[in-house]
Amino acid sequence: MTAAFGAGRAIVEVPEDEHEIEAGLMMFGFQSRNYGHWLLEFVPRMLCYNDPRCPEGISLCIDDHMPGSHEEILRLLDTRDRLVIKLPPKPVAFGLLGMAPVPAFFPFDMKPGRPFYDTVWPADVFAAVRQRILDRARECGILSGRTDRRLFISRKAFSQRALVNEAEIAERLRPLGFEIIYPETMSFLEQVEAFHSAALVVGSSSSALCNALFCRPASRIIGLIHEELSFNFRGYTSCIEVGGARILFLRGRTLPRPGVHAFHVSYTVDPEQVAAAVAALETEVATGKPAGFAVQVADDRPIRVPDRDPAGSWKAETVGAARVDPDRLARVRTLAAGWHAGAEAGLCALEAVAYVAGEPHSDQPACASPSLAAFIGTWSDRLSQDARDALILPLVPRLVGTRGSEALERRRVALVVDWLVRTHVPAWFRLAKLNVEADELANRPVVADVADLAAWFDHLKWARKRAAVANPTLRQTGTGVRAAAWDAAHQAAWAAIRDDLDAAGSRIFAAGWDAAYAAAYAAARAWGKAPLEPTRRALQESALALVERMIGTRETDLRELGSGGADPSSDAAAHPPVRHDAEAQA
Question: At what angle do helices 506-526 and 457-468 cross, to 10 degrees?
């Protein structure tokens, strides 16, 4: 079946030839090929089909493109010796179709602008699946009886949600007794045996890690994942801990790409932090004292391993009188992208900040403002080498000593939010000839605090819809539009405010996403009618001015504001309008 959709109509073509089946049980559907979806959403249905109340003689129907391991699971779970029918990629007419429910509702972006992908899997259902499969594995003589293996789960065969520095982590873990396994090359029962024999498992939080369901109760799991909160942390926890194992999540650094859903972005994790997490779990087993941090509320953030140097003496919270070492500063002549094992291998922007401040090697300098660090780190990593050295290198010494109070951080985050909604979005709207809408946003009151964005919710939602009217989709306009509207400066701004928006509640977080998509839709509207690059370059210059304001904001400014002084960010000079090509040449 093919379909084409427009704003208010749909054209659907249904092929005439149908595949007819008298009766079948539904084990096919969306994402059935994906191992994680298959194990969590499809496999538990076999408990229903094994129930005596389900009629005999009805075949199990699966998609014909699924891997052999999927059918292997069916054979292990089936107690009724049902025939398996592989459905061709064409319409199927069933005389009778039996359907069992999914064990839990698994939502995906149910609210516009609010990425959400999580659920809690029922313990009783997955305990039954686990027991059945382990029983069959014993019958087949697969389980070795070992309980001491240490596994690192490779994901290098997959490009989505990739652990970019997987090879570095693998090399760091080998001396600790870890063996590298590649689940996609193993049969299902081989995977079950590997996980059941493991004392400690480290791996990307992906489909293969769902196999930790088969781990023993004393096992410990480290799930590596990006820093995005749009991830099913509770889903993995509720599934894996059914058998008594315990999982700890270690969040790395997101490497966002325009147009890629936050759930699926690639990322890196510091190998030393992985080793520290392994040591923490070893201590947990030895002492009985839980590693990590307790979750305080239902929507609290996942566990992160505290940063430390090899001697364990440095704490990120400890900030003394930060000073720039002139000799070290003179040695920093260029900046690299990404994380490095040591200064001799190169320095990214934030590693350079820590270096010139005399701190231990780290890409999380204790002397720097977290919001500025998030902005500069993300921006720098996404620029070309020449642009990185021209724009970011001069800022390195200026970040030293910028860490301040929580109130100061909130003020800096508010500056970024204000720039996004009153400068970034209007610039793209003006390029798309939506001048009235651009002026309406630019002339709204200054965002002095993240909470102020609540008052923008309806305005940004309307702006997004207005830009999307009679507009080609972002997919149709290609990566060029997304790369312009969501360029390095925009991604840097989003990295600086993302956690604060999320902590402020769903309404404010949704407003932030509306702003991002409003800009992208406006760029798509202008696509083919006006060049995008001049606006992108102008916004880059504006972002540099924003960083200057963030650096220049100090505790004394907050005291002056509190005593009734003027807000420097409300001055028109602090927010120069973004000039477009014709204006810039005048």
Answer: 30
Confidence of residue 254 (pLDDT cuts 50, 70, 90): confident
Residue 421 has pLDDT above 60, yes or no: yes
Q: Provide the 10 A C-beta neighbour count for residue 68.
A: 8
Concatenated DSSP letters of 99-152: ----SS---SS-BTTB--------HHHHHHHHHHHHHHHHHTT-------EEEE
Q: Helix, strand or coil for residue 445?
A: coil
User: What's residue 486's pLDDT?
Assistant: 66
Closest CA to 421 of 321, 511, 305, 300: 511
Residue type, 95: G
Residue 520 is predicted with a pLDDT of 76
Q: What is the dihedral of CA 16, 22, 26, 27, to 10 degrees?
A: -90
Say how many CA atoms lie within 13 Å of 140 toward its Cβ.
Answer: 16
Beta strand 10-13 pairing with 2-5: antiparallel
Buried b (16+ CB within 10 A) or exposed e, 1-19: eeeeeeeeeeeeeeeeeee
Contact 202, 274 (CB under 8 A): yes
Question: Residue type for 402, please?
Answer: T
401 within 8 A of 435, measured Cβ to Cβ = no
- The larger pLDDT score, comparing residue 298 to residue 369, is at 369
Least trusted range by pLDDT, from 94-108, 180-194, 293-307: 293-307
Task: Report whether pLDDT(64) > 80.
Answer: yes
Global pTM reads 0.53
Instruction: For residues 276 and 308, give the distance between their C-alpha atoms in angstroms, rounded to a whole number.
Output: 9
Burial pattern 442-462, b for ≥16 Cβ within 10 A else e, equals bebebbbbbebbeebeebbbe
Do strands 220-225 and 59-63 pair parallel, antiparallel, or not at all (unpaired)? Answer: unpaired
Bin 433: left if φ > 0, else alpha if -120 < ψ < 50, else beta: left
Angle (CA) 221-256-267 rounded to 5° is: 25
Neighbour tally for 295: CB within 10 Å: 14
Choose among 538, 25, 559: nearest CA to 530: 538
